[in-house]
Design brief:
14 helices, Rossmann fold, nine-stranded mixed sheet, about 40% helix, seven-stranded mixed sheet
């Protein structure tokens, strides 16, 4: 059995601990938790049928493990964002594997350090990006990566199904401040969307962000974002999100050279150009004498498999299964275990959107591993430092 501790018992940490304690994650047992309410602890102990060690902090838990007082193989980190790096690094150096709740941190530097430390320790680093289990996202990835419809020309994602009332921000002391949360909708909700965006379309080369702070709620961080993106191949795109728009919409459009793909509310449809035009669109554009033709395309729905009923549980089961069968710091590319390196990509993108908005200019997204990335890290952390100072 994989002895696992859940560090951080808020909404998501409590969910993960509940799954493990109730026996829903084969091969995994809950060995300890940190900072849990009496009500949640009582339920966990009822599920387990015995008392469970509770620690006030991650340090106390990991120090107890180092002294041999508890048996552990892995930790699941579900604490406030700034702390992810520190906890993960200490866990790897202690010889433990790590599953980290999104985002990997607040700064992309934190994700870079986490990758390095996991590799150095020879341990597993996985991210909780459960949206990759969506049948719509998986099929969309398959279609785009196959190249059957050519290269990406344009991307548009309008995602406002992250609606939150004011009470959401008031329910937790660490929410909605630069100093304790590190950001708003981009960092709290949209790491999932930005992960899917870069996974399917690749990382944009440059972005121009417009982040509106306290637009719909009485908070100091952003709750409304519009980002313009450009890719190296000339493709362009927009990403729009908020926590204050209703009714909600989640519509992703990807224009390829020979088709338009639309993913909305878990449904996927494709409009192919060749059946109508009888040739490639680029050839038709060059040769057509019909100056005002409206091209409708030939639409068809894409059959999708049934979505995983509980994506979080599936990810946990995959993490457990992987640890039982494998070792080392390079998880498989199976959809139920996402390598920690993916967390760095989405953080670079969100950091670039923030920095662009604050500096009021387009920002290049640096290549991972380049000197530009190190310089970018410094610029971003300088600017968010200013935001944190104003919020104190």
């Amino acid at each position: 059995m994989i002895n696992t501790a859940v560090i951080g018992m808020g909404n998501m940490g409590s969910r993960y601990a509940g799954y493990i304690a109730s026996g829903m994650v084969p091969g995994m047992t809950l060995s300890a938790v940190t900072r849990v309410s009496p009500e949640r602890l009582s339920q966990l102990e009822e599920d387990l049928g015995n008392k469970i060690p509770v620690y006030d902090t991650a340090d106390e838990l990991l120090d107890s493990f180092a002294r041999g007082e508890i048996s552990l193989d892995a930790v699941i980190i579900a604490t406030p964002h700034y702390s992810h790096e520190q906890i993960a690094v200490k866990a790897w150096r202690a010889g433990l594997d790590v599953l980290c709740e999104k985002p990997a941190g607040v700064y992309s530097r934190q994700a870079r350090i986490m990758e390095t430390e996991a590799v150095s320790a020879g341990r597993v680093f996985a991210m909780m990006f459960q949206m990759r289990l969506s049948e719509c996202c998986r099929e969309l990835y398959s279609i785009v990566s196959s190249g059957r419809y050519g290269k990406i020309k344009r991307v548009h994602w309008l995602v406002t199904n992250w609606y939150r009332p004011d009470g959401y921000y008031k329910a937790s002391k660490w929410h909605a401040t630069w100093a304790t949360d590190g950001g708003g909708v981009l960092l709290n909700q949209c790491p999932h969307n930005l992960d899917i965006l870069q996974w399917i379309c690749g990382t944009p080369a440059r972005v121009q962000g417009f982040c509106h702070e306290g637009h719909y709620h009485d908070i100091e961080v952003e709750d409304d974002v519009t980002a313009y993106m450009e890719w190296e191949n000339g493709a362009t795109g927009t990403f729009i999100t908020s926590t204050g728009d209703a009714p909600a919409i989640d519509r992703l459009e990807i224009f390829l050279e020979e088709a338009l793909i639309v993913c909305e509310n878990g449904n996927l449809k494709v409009s192919e150009l060749a059946p109508e035009l009888g040739q490639k669109e680029s050839d038709y554009r060059k040769n057509s004498a019909d100056f005002f033709k409206t091209i409708k395309g030939t639409w068809h729905d894409v059959a999708l498999g049934k979505d995983v009923e509980d994506q979080w549980l599936k990810m946990l089961c995959g993490f457990s299964s992987y640890l039982e069968k494998n070792s080392g710091s390079n998880p498989s590319s199976e959809p139920f275990i996402i390598p920690g390196s993916e967390g760095r990509k989405s953080l670079l993108l969100s950091n670039a959107i923030y920095l662009s908005s604050w500096k009021k200019k387009m920002i290049d997204v640096p290549e991972i591993g380049s000197e530009d990335e190190l310089e970018f890290e410094k610029r971003f952390e300088e600017e968010i430092g200013k935001k944190k100072g104003k919020g104190l």
